[in-house]
């Protein structure tokens, strides 16, 4: 789809100032061509869940493809009076030269595994940190939340209704895209449909009903305007005493005589479980058992789960601010860390040490694999190796928890899938993005290969991300040497 709004948007200057000061320092000290490797990873799963969903790769690709500093950008930076003229000339003639690998969008991801790997001139690899993080962090956060909500809905469609509650127009648009990847069926955001093909849906607000002299008149006018897709909002005044009776009356007078069927009613306030059960009986008794009941009003995965426990009669869910903002846990927390420097063709591993154990990084240029059981097809664990290690499918592999090495598991009879896919080679895009609908289907299939215990909302089973023995020894060796 050709969208000028997307193709003309240059976000090169959307970076943190320290990326410029460091890059200038690399050039001034003749380090600009030193090859570095950076990993993007995250440490904690939102909402204390069992996994997250990787999203945002398409927008990262769009950003990289448009990297260019304009003359206006250079004049702005020159005005700061701290940048060397050679650096400003480098930026004016900037040409991206890095390699990038990433997980496929829609892949379930886990803490401390490299979901994006960048290798290239350190001046460039450092400079793209901010956009990698903000793009992947935001969409992964929303896709993860959406997937939780969708799983709570037990196969009932979930519509993303959050545009007006999002923190910005970008958050609304790209949040709708991420929510679709996570499993939502549609979005109220028209721009998300225009740009990405996320199906746009919507009927009426309470203001429509209030505009008319009576609720009946409002429903009548709407039904005559949209007889093929008539869904009526029934809670403006009184759901059971006027809303549903007026809806049924209009269905009888307008929709049914045309040989059509009403699509649904929507309940947006009150005790939704109670009202939905009453509404279902009223619609069934009136001869409309196929008329669907839509529920909205500040829903999240826990409320939806409780509605099922109360035998609510709901066919579709509209979820707004709690999804589009991931209100319960609104920060994804992905980080971007240097893990290796190349010297004379050899990758020298680098590590960040902290008194907080969770903040100690895993050093080295790495590969990532996922093991699936050949017997069940379910995911067993992720396995992080040094980049040039091979995994022999005929061998027994001992998996162990890097932080609790006595926890071991021997794996046999497994299928091994490489998780990191080449996206750029020497600055040239080598990856073709799949259609968004295919990403959504892939996400659903991959989540389906996780054990139910990993998908629990409370106290999920911890899915292990294990290090190869070679990588573990490298990490321990650095920790020992640097502690001396």
Short summary:
Helix content is 37%, strand content 21%. The protein has helices spanning 4-7, 17-28, 57-65, 71-78, 85-92, 122-127, 129-152, 169-182, 190-196, 206-211, 215-225, 239-255, 272-285, 301-309, 321-324, 436-447, 469-483; strands at 35-42, 52-53, 99-102, 108-109, 116-121, 158-160, 186-187, 231-233, 264-267, 292-295, 316-319, 334-343, 346-349, 366-373, 379-386, 397-401, 404-411, 414-418, 421-425, 428-429, 465-467.
Secondary structure topology:
Blueprint: H1 4-7, H2 17-28, E1 35-42, E2 52-53, H3 57-65, H4 71-78, H5 85-92, E3 99-102, E4 108-109, E5 116-121, H6 122-127, H7 129-152, E6 158-160, H8 169-182, E7 186-187, H9 190-196, H10 206-211, H11 215-225, E8 231-233, H12 239-255, E9 264-267, H13 272-285, E10 292-295, H14 301-309, E11 316-319, H15 321-324, E12 334-343, E13 346-349, E14 366-373, E15 379-386, E16 397-401, E17 404-411, E18 414-418, E19 421-425, E20 428-429, H16 436-447, E21 465-467, H17 469-483
Parallel strand pairs: 6-7, 6-11, 8-9, 9-10, 10-11, 15-21
Antiparallel strand pairs: 1-5, 1-12, 2-4, 3-5, 3-19, 12-13, 14-15, 14-18, 16-17, 19-20
Helix pairs in contact: 3-7, 4-5, 7-8, 7-14, 8-16, 11-12, 12-13
């Amino acid at each position: 789809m050709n969208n000028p709004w997307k193709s003309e948007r240059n976000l090169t200057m959307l970076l943190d100032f320290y990326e410029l000061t460091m890059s200038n320092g690399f050039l001034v000290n003749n380090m600009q061509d030193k090859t570095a490797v950076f990993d993007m990873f995250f440490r904690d799963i939102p909402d204390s869940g069992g996994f997250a969903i990787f999203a945002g790769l398409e927008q990262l690709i769009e950003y990289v493809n448009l990297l260019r500093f304009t003359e206006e950008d250079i004049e702005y930076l020159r005005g700061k009076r701290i940048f060397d003229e050679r650096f400003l000339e480098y930026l004016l003639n900037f040409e991206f030269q890095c390699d990038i690998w990433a997980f496929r969008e829609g892949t379930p991801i886990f803490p401390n595994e490299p979901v994006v790997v960048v290798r290239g001139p350190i001046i460039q690899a450092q400079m793209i940190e901010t956009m990698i993080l903000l793009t992947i962090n935001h969409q992964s956060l929303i896709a993860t939340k959406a997937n939780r909500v969708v799983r709570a809905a037990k196969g009932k469609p979930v519509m993303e209704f959050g545009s007006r509650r999002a923190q910005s127009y970008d958050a609304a648009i790209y949040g709708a895209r991420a929510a679709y990847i996570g499993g939502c069926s549609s979005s109220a955001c028209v721009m998300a449909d225009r740009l990405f093909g996320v199906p746009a849906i919507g009927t009426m607000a309470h203001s429509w009903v209030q505009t008319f002299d009576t609720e009946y008149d409002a429903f009548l006018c709407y039904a005559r305007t949209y007889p093929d897709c008539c869904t009526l909002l029934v809670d403006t005044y009184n759901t059971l005493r006027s809303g549903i009776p007026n809806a049924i009356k209009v269905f009888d007078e307008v929709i049914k005589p045309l040989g059509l069927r009403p699509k649904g009613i929507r309940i947006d306030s009150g005790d939704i479980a109670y009202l939905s059960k009453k509404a279902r009986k009223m619609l069934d008794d009136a001869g409309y058992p196929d008329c669907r009941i839509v529920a909205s009003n500040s829903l999240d995965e826990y409320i939806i789960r409780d509605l099922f426990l109360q035998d609510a009669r709901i066919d579709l869910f509209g979820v707004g601010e709690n999804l589009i903002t991931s209100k319960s846990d609104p920060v994804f927390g992905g980080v971007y860390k240097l893990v290796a420097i190349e010297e004379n063709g050899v990758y020298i591993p680098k590590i960040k040490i902290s008194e907080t154990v969770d903040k100690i990084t895993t050093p080295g240029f790495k590969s990532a694999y996922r093991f699936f059981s050949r017997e069940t097809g379910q995911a067993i664990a992720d396995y992080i190796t040094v980049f040039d290690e091979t995994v022999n499918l005929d061998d027994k592999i001992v998996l162990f928890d890097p932080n609790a090495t006595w926890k071991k598991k021997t794996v046999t009879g497994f299928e091994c899938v490489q998780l990191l896919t080449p996206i750029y080679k020497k600055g040239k895009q080598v990856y073709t993005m799949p259609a968004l609908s295919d990403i959504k289907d892939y996400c659903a299939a991959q989540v389906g290969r996780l054990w139910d215990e990993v998908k629990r909302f409370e106290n999920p089973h911890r899915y292990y991300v294990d290090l190869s023995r070679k990588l573990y020894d490298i990490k321990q060796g650095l920790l020992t040497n640097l502690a001396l």
